[in-house]
User: Fold this.
Amino acid sequence: MSNVSLKKEVVLLIKKTKKFNRPWYPPSPHCKIPDLPPLVRNENKLESKLRKLLPKVSIRSSDPSARYANFKEIGTGVNGAVVRATYRRKPNVRVAIKRCKLDPDREYRAAILRELKIMASGHSNLIKLREVTLCQDDIWMTMDLMRCSVFAVLCQRGIPEEYTVYMACETLKALAHLHSQGILHRDVKCENLLLGWHGEVKLADFGLSARISRPNHERLGTTKWMAPEVIREEYYNEKIDMWSLGITVIEMMDRVPPHYAIKDEEELFDIIATEPSPTFTYSYPTMYMRGLVAWLLDEEPETRPTARDALLEIEAHVQSNLLPCSNAQDMTRFLNQVLPEC
Assistant:
């Protein structure tokens, strides 16, 4: 074949491939189709940040109503409302979902991220985060659904000392973990202590939590559970959680916190900041329980116990039969009697 005829065939082949808009490759036994570039998924900055912060938690960008059904409001947290729901594909599995607005305020977003990180820590005495869904200007935090709050029990009756000691121990485990991670809760009370179907006790609602290392002096929390140094807006640390736990223990046995009848906040501020530490009013605990609460409610933060010290002290008293203490099985039976419908 002459060079002229060969050139004509090549030109015709090129024209043919151009006609059908196909790339032309010289015929060869080693011809290879190039690999497709990796699929790039658009992801906003917050979603990217959440994936780095919560590597073990599922992060979704979708309409939650396509995944969940049977929404029913069950409470409110510091940063948003809490609802009960079920999975559409698993209608027997119930979860709790906290819905928060994604406010552009930097500190507000930092508080939400801190709350998510705490719940994702996996500690057995902290409410567990299952997944996060981003939808428009909302963030949906899917959590384990618990049986009830300790406050729900108090609406029916006061709590005997042995169950109070058990719940105090479980709460101290949660606080010891938080404090070891450099976090203070700032809103410990019966309403934020949740009980499971097998007697579990979990601390919830971390919307007011803060880093211990930063200078904290804001008057934040729920007034009747605030430590004197919070009322006075002095710089404070994790010891404020120990004061709040002391008030919570009184609340468990008395059914109400100290000064419950006082509604005026300024009057409450004055009482908490200036009067001696409160004690039990309507119940009759053992002298050792009174001593424990007096220790937790020490007016001087420096001599107030740490969560770890208080837990060790209670465990020693329980082992010596000086303090009665139930267990998870006893707690379940107690709840079945008090709240059989839950």
Summary: The first strand starts at residue 58 and ends at 61. The chain has eleven helices and eleven strands. The domain at 52-144 is CATH 3.30.200.20 (Phosphorylase Kinase; domain 1). The CA atoms of residues 110 and 210 lie 10 Å apart.
